[in-house]
Amino acid sequence: MRGVSLLGNCKVHIKEFPNPQPNNRQVVIKMGASGLCGSDLPPYRSTPEDLGNRKLIIVGHEPCGTVIGIGSEVRNIRIGDRVIVHHYSGCGECGFCKTGWTQLCQVDMVHFGGKANGAHADYQLVYDYMCVPMPDELSFAEGASIACGTGTAYQALKRLDVSGRDILAVFGQGPVGLSATLLGAFMGARVISIDPVRERRELAESNGAWKTIDPASNNPSEAINTLTDGRGADATIDASGIDQVRAEAIRSTRIWGRCCLVGEGGSLTLEPSPDIIHRQLNLMGSWTFSTGVLKELADWIVEREIPLSKIITNRFPLEKASEAFNLLDSSKTGKIVLTYL
Predict the structure, then answer these.
(1) Please, what is the Cα angle at 186 between 255 and 61, to 5 degrees?
(2) How many angstroms from the chain centroid is the CA of residue 308?
(3) Intervals of the chain under pLDDT 50
């Protein structure tokens, strides 16, 4: 089978790998689509030396497809099932694993697409408990979006308890932030979307944003205060992972408000008293989602007829993976997915 590996210095390689064979509780997925994620960019931009053995791994951690093979002990999945894959495995015995939060496993967590072969391939070998049923109404491209970026946004919105009472400010309109704009609007919030890239602000506007802000020409905190009669946003999300941006998200949150940090990496410098303590701020982090939340989101999107396909701006066949990564690196698009015939 074909699989995509990173070589370092923004180079992508497609090579042949052995077809996977399932053992015991393993499942073979024929890929329908796999998404690209902003978290793919640091390894894509890394040097070959920094990548090390990761150069040998098939990348991609946003998989969905059809089950074509199952191990002898698999009872919960059948050949032909359409599934979204939760891209972590764990020990299977701890409380986190038993509740579907395998990424929090402290014993044996493995990230597929990072430490084990991922989704940018014709087939993927995973464990049965990683597979979540995908409604027939969803396309594979939509399933791939749910598998990480949109699922991550949904879990953050759940943590913030976003509703129609809220003005929600979303900092960064990459795939996660754009998903938060779309889903937040369907939850009833008035969404303010912040991004310096014109194309991404336009995508936010077409996917439910009440207002957009260009931080290159407007101070976001001041602009949000103007839009909210000086109160600040009820809830804020940082989906950028940029130091000064996440600090701005915190400072844009109203007194007694809620702020959720989602963007990975970087650092954060604040003055705790004026920025958090004296404003009674609820500050939290959110890292991806559980298998239960993944199923909940897939069903909710179908039930509410949410047009998730609108945020998917680019589709590439596997053989054009290099072009897909190059476009991802431009930071001007919505969701990018690899699709398979």
Answers:
(1) 95
(2) 13
(3) none
d(CA 318, CA 27): 21
d(CA 306, CA 322) in angstroms, rounded, equals 30
Q: Pairing state of beta strands 82-85 and 88-89?
A: unpaired
What the block records as the tokens of 204 is 């936010």
If phi over 0 gives left and psi between -120 and 50 gives alpha, with beta otherwise, what is residue 109? Answer: beta
Is the backbone of residue 265 left (phi > 0), alpha (psi -120 to 50) or beta? left
Quote the CA–CA distance of 4 and 318 in Å, as a whole number.
8
Q: Output the CA torsion 46→47→52→58 (10° steps).
A: 50
Structure tokens at 233: 């946003």
Q: Would you mind telling me the total number of residues written for the chain in this entry?
A: 341
- Whether the Cβ atoms of residue 298 and residue 134 lie closer than 8 Å to each other: yes
Give dist(CA 247, CA 251) in Å, integer. 6
Give alpha helix (H) positions in 128-167. 140-145, 151-160
Three-state secondary-structure class, residue 70: strand
Packed helices 175-186 and 198-206: angle between N→C axes, nearest 10 degrees: 20
The residue whose two tokens read 């940082």 is: 238
Output the six-digit token pair for 311.
């945020």
Q: What pLDDT is recorded for position 188?
A: 98
- Any idea what the Cα angle at residue 128 is, between residues 122 and 134, rounded to 5°? 70
Q: HEC string of 255-294?
A: EEEEEEECCCCCCCCCCHHHHCHHHCCEEEECCCCCHHHH
So what's the pLDDT on residue 78?
Answer: 97
> Angle 151-160/291-303 helices, nearest 10 degrees?
90
CA distance 33 to 338: 5
Alpha-carbon distance 87 to 58, whole Å? 13
- State residue 147's pLDDT score: 98
Distance, in Å, from the CA atom of 71 to the CA atom of 126, rounded to the nearest integer, reads 10
Q: How far apart are CA 336 and CA 312, in angstroms?
A: 6
Measure the CA–CA gap between 35 and 147, rounded to whole angstroms: 8
